[in-house]
Amino acid sequence: MNLFVTGGCGFIGSNFVRQRLTASVAQVERLVNLDALTYAGNPANLADLAGDPRYVFAHGDIADTALVARLLAEHRIDAVAHFAAESHVDRSIDSAEPFVQTNVVGTLRLLEGARRHWEQLPAPRRDAFRFLHVSTDEVYGPLAYDAPPLAEDAPFAPSSPYAATKAAGDHLARAFHRTHGLPVLAARVSNNYGPRQLAEKLIPLVILHAVTGRPLPLYGDGLATRDWLHVCDCGTALWRLLQDGRTGEAYNIGGGNERTNLEVVRRICAVLDRAVPRGDGRPHATQITHVADRPGHDRRYALDCGKIRRETGWTPQADFASGLEETVAWYLGHRAWLNDITVAKQPA
User: Fold this and answer.
1) b/e per residue 184-205 (b: at least 16 CB within 10 A)
2) Which is the most buried residue in 54, 126, 305, 331, by most CB within 10 A?
3) Which one is the CATH code of 2-198+229-256+300-318: 3.10.310.30, 3.20.20.140, 3.40.640.10, 3.40.50.720?
């Protein structure tokens, strides 16, 4: 397979690229990574792969139709994995337009480019072509604490500008399948965690603030609940969908680890108390500071992931407690990386 990845220098995208190129059994003949290298794209995430002859990096925007067309044709692309997105809710509240440009306009132009490329392929390659649109559980909107997890047929009810633009991308992807027959699949994933995540997100932000003696900000009462999925499990699920998923379908991908933000922060603090105790002997949890809640903050997300399990056999492998401990250890072992990346004022 010749694979085209967008946003491959970001957190989830770079993990996916690394998994594909370091698998024990060769999975791709060529992998082309198109990334605009905005604040969330970090080339250091993939610096160790620069010498791999299968890997091609292209600096550019998914909305650049000429560039996308050239890359798809030149590298004889067989599948697209679309990660590129503006993804931080706080930033979308401050300014929604960049989210519309990337998540809606950019996705539209990428779909158009993929459609034209796909239509020109010979029959066997045309039949095997896939376009995987990576989306989010936030398109469904908030869920009551006592409600069952949502399946893929749940209606969309996005709360933030970010979630609204991702929902728009989902609708466009579905429309291109139904109108043009483009073999599209959509993946709606829950909160990812693991190494190399930008420190505007909750887990790396808390680690950075804790070890530098700063307050650990929590929105409101800290009881917003998320389902946590290790980024390696996410990458495995996405690859399984490219192999075995049904075109025209959407699939939820979650870790089955619902935790409140307060619980996650306290768990991180407990790990840090053992690994890097404070000089004054006090627990890191004393740094937790509750701040004014975010506008439109959803209280809970939860996904029913039975569909992907039934159809592909995928199940998450990471245990949350050990996965979180390993994640904290990675950041503590990469202080320079953590300190060099952009830090937001508030948690994700």
Assistant:
1) bbbbbbbbbbbbbbbbbbbbbb
2) 305
3) 3.40.50.720
Q: Is 138 exposed, middle or buried (0-12, 13-18, 19+ CB in 10 A)?
A: buried
CB 185 within 8 A of CB 133: yes
Candidates 35, 64, 137, 233; catalytic one: 137
287: closest CA among 207, 341, 344? 207
Among residues 138, 170, 200, 258, the one annotated as catalytic is 138
Domain extents for the chain? Answer: 2-198+229-256+300-318
Run means of pLDDT, 10 residues per run, the chain, 348 residues: 96 96 85 93 88 95 98 98 92 93 97 98 96 98 96 97 97 98 98 91 93 94 97 98 97 97 98 96 96 93 98 97 96 81 43
Helices (H) then strands (E): counts for the chain? 13, 12
Extended beta strands in the chain, E state:
2-6, 30-35, 55-59, 79-82, 130-136, 184-189, 191-193, 216-219, 225-230, 250-253, 258-260, 288-291
Among this protein's residues, is 162 annotated catalytic? Answer: yes
Q: What is the pTM of this model?
A: 0.95
Residue 137 annotated among the catalytic residues of the structure = yes
